[in-house]
Amino acid sequence: MNLARVVGRIVATQKDSGLTGSKLLLLQPLDSNLAPRGSTLLAADAVGAGAGETVIYVRGREASHAFLPAGVPVDAGIVGIVDEVYLDPDSGRGARLP
Question: For the chain, what is the domain count?
Answer without folding.
Answer: 1
